[in-house]
Amino acid sequence: MYQKLVKGLAIYRQNHTNSIYVRFRVDGKEIKRSLKTSDLDDAISKAWALKFEYEGMIKAGLEIVPVQRHTVEKACHSVITQLKEKKPFRNTYNDYIYLFNSFIIPFFKNKSIEELTTKNIRLYFDGLELSQTRKTMNKTCFTHLFYYLEEEELLKKKDFPSFPKDIKTTQKQIGIDFKESELKSIREFTESENWLEQKNINFKTREYRFIFPHVFNFLLETGIRTGEEMNNIRYSDLTKHNKSFYVKIRKGKTKEHSQRESILSRKAINSLIAITQITKNLDLTVDKLLTVKDGFIFESSFEKIADWCKLFDQIIKKMIEQNIIKTKYTLYSCRHTYITKQLLNGVDMLVIAKQVGNSLETIQNHYDHSLLKDNKNVRALTKGREAVRF
């Protein structure tokens, strides 16, 4: 698409982008700019406004700079803005934004687009210790950046930098499960009046705190992943079969377990009932839970889903400061605790893998520590021996 508006002023759009651009001449210099719109009428209006603005600068004696210095940092901030405006907004976008702000922008600070080279990207990856997941997410961030630069006519697709083929990744470290004594302390703290009825907290924070103990219990009872996997559970995902309740998991890490079903214990169901009573002010029975108007189960009464991991981090930090516990847990510890508990109860590894959406290999490789906690294995290892003293 190309449309001449007047001599020396035209708007155009290339095949690879929806945005419309303007090209015009002023004081003998050619200016090209993105108009940040795909609407034709809006683009025409903005093109004229930009032309008049530059002509006004000439009359005022201001110097016209035909080419702006584009930096990687500016481009990253533009990509962040695009991610924030995406509908529907996915939790993964928060992870991308975090990587841009915490790693990519600091590394490429003050570097021009011309310095976004294959060599510099290799140096970026060489300076990080990445899990396989973080490696993939970083590459996705750069891909977003490349396509933004192409759309803004700052980088041609044929000139996209290459990713290193030998990016090293660290072995995934499994998290820790809760110690019984500290798990009890966490429950008591999150259910205490001092925490729930703390002065000077707003009604949103208060509601999140009242919901959290039930979120915590639900995770401990199911092994479901925090974040996208849990937050996207809807009332319509709940089903009942032969007196047992199930939940369909539609989001999150479902590559090998697409839309898997997880069984819900009675305690897990009771947690969902308690959450619904808080957020919807409904008096529910177990079976009535299946008739609740569809929506996200973990959404508050004001239609927001808390960052439960962040809230739990605050709880753990406060408890450590008060010397109530010593271990720095994450909310993912609920999942580790669930899997370890099922293994100790003799549940088949394949069944556990199906329930939590892991591969059998992951369960075998990362949860073998539970074998040393199994009473029959303890007896086998210590039978007929005196306790060893060190």
TrEMBL record:
Keyword Transmembrane part of the UniProt annotation: no
Signal sequence annotation: none
Domain annotation Tyr recombinase: ranges: 185-380
Organism superkingdom: Bacteria
Alphabetized InterPro entries for the sequence: DNA_brk_join_enz (IPR011010), Integrase-like_cat_sf (IPR013762), Integrase_catalytic (IPR002104), Integrase_recombinase_N (IPR010998), Tyrosine_recombinase_XerCD (IPR050090)
Keywords: DNA integration, DNA recombination, DNA-binding
Record Pfam families: Phage_integrase
GO BP annotations, alphabetical order: DNA integration; DNA recombination
GO MF, any single term: DNA binding
Family (UniProt): Belongs to the 'phage' integrase family.
Protein name as catalogued: Site-specific recombinase, phage integrase family protein
Source organism: Photobacterium profundum 3TCK
UniProt lineage: Bacteria, Pseudomonadati, Pseudomonadota, Gammaproteobacteria, Vibrionales
